Amino acid sequence: MSSLNYLYGKPLSEGDFKHTPEDFVVEEVLDIEFTGEGEHVCLQVIKRGENTTYVAKKIAQMAGVAPRDVSYAGLKDRHGVCTQWFSVPVAIKTEVDFSKLNSDSIVVIKQVRHNRKLRTGCHRGNRFIITLRNVTEPLDVLSRINAVRQGVPNYFAEQRFGHDGHNLEMAERLFGGEYIRDKKLRGIVISAARSFIFNQIVSRRVKEHGLAKTWHREVFMLAGSNAFFEDDLNDDIVERLNKEDILLSAPLVGKGEKGLTSVEREWLLEYTNWHQGLADLGLKNERRSLRVIPKELKLESMPDRAIKLTFELPKGCYATAVLRELIMHKDVSKKEKQNPGDLEE
């Protein structure tokens, strides 16, 4: 992400990120009313230093089912203390004491039955409590808070692209004709390619126009939905933007030109091979919000040149997209190679 343009200029301050798991606390926000009965057991779990897929496997072993039968709303970072929900099928007349999973790294804090399994993306978002250490210029971080409250570029974070960009290297080979047999890995590589192109388009827009300026013709997303439409700028559009009923967006490219502005078509020419490769795979054009606004963003100065940040983001958005506009943060947990399960929203 270091090559992507900053909306508010490159930060002056540096600091350490994820010095300990407790420095990165994530709480999944799941707006679901559980039925209290049904063939699925939903578990709220706190995990420390473990990735989501590992916890899912442990739950599967306890329930006597295959790991693929355990569902969750989204992956959470291994290098943190993360609270998230899982669901697992358990026959109605069968009782399983999942508290037996409790250990130094896994704690089951709630267990409730529900009439359906959890699905990817069913959560509203995530709350973050992040402690940055060895901060060199605390006042520069503080001076940026009000600007960042107005929103930051909704970039995909670097872990989306694999260790040292390995997923992008595989994408290049995929679009060059190499076949990837593993369906899960293939999906990760395809997603990385789309995310990379999205980031480049957003970065160029940030550089040339910022995020406040609206083009004469845009593709807008309906807030809280993946639906989008193209329209000319007019009084009604401006009013809806001000109410956040609709959002500015950028493309997740696929087949055809539906949902692409003339400017975006021009910018995408630089990525023709990958764009065509994604189209050939049958992906349809989609959109993603251009900007993400951290809700309830607060900063607290702490002893020993540390800063604590708290905020909430919608699902699919990355805490590091917020951090990069505040501070040049060094992820000190990256002493070991990350795998696809070590992701964070």
From TrEMBL:
Transmembrane segments: none annotated. It comes from the Bacteria. InterPro entries: PsdUridine_synth_cat_dom_sf (IPR020103), PsdUridine_synth_TruD (IPR001656), PsdUridine_synth_TruD_insert (IPR011760), TruD_catalytic (IPR042214), TruD_insert_sf (IPR043165), TruD_pseudoU_synthase (IPR050170). GO terms for molecular function: RNA binding; tRNA pseudouridine(13) synthase activity. The active site is at 77 (nucleophile). It catalyses: uridine(13) in tRNA = pseudouridine(13) in tRNA. GO terms for cellular component: cytosol. Residues 151-302 form the TRUD domain. Keywords: Isomerase, tRNA processing. Its EC number is 5.4.99.27. One of its GO terms (biological process) is tRNA pseudouridine synthesis. HAMAP family: TruD. Responsible for synthesis of pseudouridine from uracil-13 in transfer RNAs. Belongs to the pseudouridine synthase TruD family. This is tRNA pseudouridine synthase D. It comes from Pseudoalteromonas luteoviolacea. The gene is truD.
